[in-house]
Write a structure and sequence with these properties.
single chain, four-stranded antiparallel sheet, alpha+beta, binds zinc ion, five-stranded antiparallel sheet
Length: 222
């Protein structure tokens, strides 16, 4: 059985919280910052890991929820943060092993993760039942859309069962990639459009809101 990725959380001692992610082959990503940071202040490690936006954002969201869970005053809040930390941890554990075997083959097409026309780098790993790629723009694992004749890239599911997927256009999440691309700058649209996905960057977008609220609550208590 192949070993998975590991996440090591360290709580704030003097600086802020941090997390070290190791891929199965030992490639490293470290994210650290303060609990007010929407993005990690420091991103360090191997380029295959640090260059993947979804990995970085979810590792940081995991870190924030672990820290917020530690600081939360009630058991309910602690539990809620622990649950959300687990969601981001799963995304990290889904992506990191794929980054160990990025190949040379590149497909250029619309991405259902970020709705941009992007390069997708093939993952050359044994045992993958579906041809899997990593979007260069958003870092999401992608697979070619299962709709006949469609060359767009669908989001590859995570978890133990991975089924063939439709791209965002064929699953009617967006009317068309071309029009969706006009909207990517608007965060509120991201949230609505991503709502139907199980695992995606919207979770990172959501944690940003949670992080902001948490920071506000603590600031108000001072
Ligand atoms: Zn993408
Ligand atoms: Zn399609």
């Amino acid at each position: 059985m192949a070993q998975g990725a590991t996440l090591k959380f360290s709580s704030a001692v003097r600086g802020g919280p941090s997390c070290e992610v190791r891929s199965p082959l030992g490639y490293r990503l470290t994210v650290s910052g303060s609990t007010n940071d929407i993005q990690p202040k420091v991103v360090d490690g191997d380029s295959s890991m640090t260059g993947n936006l979804a990995l970085v954002e979810n590792a940081w969201a995991f870190t924030l929820h672990k820290e917020f869970g530690r600081l939360a005053p009630t058991p309910e809040e602690q539990k809620s943060h622990r649950k959300q930390a687990e969601v981001h941890k799963e995304v990290v554990e889904n992506i990191a092993p794929l980054l160990d075997s990025l190949g040379d083959e590149v497909l250029s097409d619309w991405c259902s993760g970020c709705f941009t026309y992007s390069d997708h780098v093939k993952v050359e790993q044994e045992g993958l039942k579906l041809p899997t790629y990593i979007c260069e723009t958003c870092g999401t694992p992608t697979i070619p859309c299962v709709a006949p004749g469609c060359a767009y890239m669908a989001v590859r599911g995570s978890g133990s069962i991975r089924l063939p997927s439709y791209c965002a256009e064929h699953s009617h999440k967006i009317p068309s990639f071309e029009r969706a691309a006009d909207k990517v700058a608007r965060l509120e649209d991201y949230a609505t459009l991503y709502e139907y996905d199980e695992r995606n960057l919207a979770r990172a977008t959501r944690v940003v809101a949670v992080a902001g609220i948490g920071a506000g609550v603590r600031a108000a208590r001072r």
